[in-house]
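Crash report, auto-generated. Payload:
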Amino acid sequence: MTVSTSDVAEAERLAIEAVELARNPQRPRALAVIESAFEDFTELRGDRRFGDDHAVVGGLARLGERWVMVVGQEKGVDAATRALRNFGMPHPEGYRKAQRLMRLAERFALPVVCLVDTPAAHPGIGAEERGQGWAIAESLSIMLELRVPTVSAVLSEGGSGGALALAMADRVLALENAIYTVAPPETCAAILYRDAAQRARAAAALRPGVDTAHEHALVDELVPEPPPGAHAMGTVVIAALRGALIRHLDELSAMDPEERLARRRARYRALGG
Amino acid sequence: MVPAERRVVTVELRPHRRLATPGPRPQPLLPPATVECPRCERRLPEARWEEQLRVCAHCGHHARVPARLRITQLADPGTVELMDLPARDTDPLRFDDGLPYPERLRSARAATGSSDAVVVAAAAIGGMAALIVSMEFAFMGGSLGSAAGGAFAVACDRAVAERRPLVAVCVSGGARMQEGIVALAQMARCTVGTSALAAAALPYLTVLADPCFGGVTASFATQADVILAEPRARIGFAGGRVIEQATYERLPEGFQTAEFLLAHGMIDQVVERSRLRDTVRRVLLALSSAGPR
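Recovered output after restart:
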């Protein structure tokens, strides 16, 4: 390998910058998107089994002409709401709430819109006791088999299976400066180098930008963010996202349901060659 | 490590350390007559160790089992037909964490004799035709990447085409970091497989062995109709180290063991390896008894 030390340092600096930009606290959060892109939002809460996870919000809403079920991961906007929302890291009951709302949407033929915004599923004792892995796995199965149109959008951070659980849709959009990774760079560094402090090195190796996910067909479309990015251009970016969501729902709603399902299965079956 | 035990246990005991710093291979030694239990460190005659399916006669420790040996432990003798899974050097991120990923793959292949972390066989279990998916922990920690995800999907395709139940032995640290987002996508890809099994009403049974974590736990390992686990196997989503660092919580005794998950209603049974084949056989027999729907 003939890569100079300065090239490596530069790559790591760029990767960390990309991660920091995606994590800018001023970027539009799920509730902000619901507030401005949707109308008549009526929140529906609880998983009917254990609790109500504030890291996941969802409910009925209108998007343009259409009623939909919207489900999102909410990171919070200040110290108090970030604590309440657990920084957007769901527990199993959050995924089970999402599942409940998706099943409800299916019964009443409502399209499902998911707003993905999580560093990862919550790592904790209670989450493990209540089957975090089981909950995510069930979400994957449900999203694959929903008979209604589904569109997901990655807002800032799509981290690990905790993000995929809301992102196995017919169409997956992502805001241009978001990241979408197999694990947060800190976790990746802990796994690969046994040292979470080496997150810059892990970030450079992981290529966390959503362009990588786009290149590998896990994301279909990038929603442009005018410079300097969605943290400063929230209104414009949300309007662009709204337009893209409606356009994809229009296309998907015009399709035969069987055809739509077959395409969704074929799409996820083909990932990775 | 004691040189005398190398032939039998080194690969399963210290796979990460070996792959992370590939040095000269150990010199071939004379076959050892005994094997040391990695837990209680008492010695057993090698023949007895194998006869007991690598479970320690002294302390009951269930040692890790290489993927192909696991298949022969589960299948009826003489019925195993390994599926040919070509080795692929896909490197979607051109990943280099000190060693280029394709080189890591090649050294894992040399160390295990498997093309990647998933081995698939068609075999009979108690006279019933089945497909067996068996994960190779010594292959980069049994991590789920595109080759393993593809192999799992192919196993599901064949199970559906031949109307066979599928048994998957899951041993994995989770998604393969070196494949980044493409590894994450394998969770989706494997879910297409398990959904097809469910749609075809074919029994799907998993055996969770030590360890089973991350993207494997959060996809095909727990999407099964019946979930069994081996005694004291560590099973979970996030690893204990990640949980401690993230939450500063002290992990309770026995946290994330098979017994812990049984108590929390997450698995059907903790099954000793000596009873595993018979338990699998009985479940498949019962679930297949009404014939195709």
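Post-recovery validation: Chain A touches chain B through 54 residues (CB under 8 Å).
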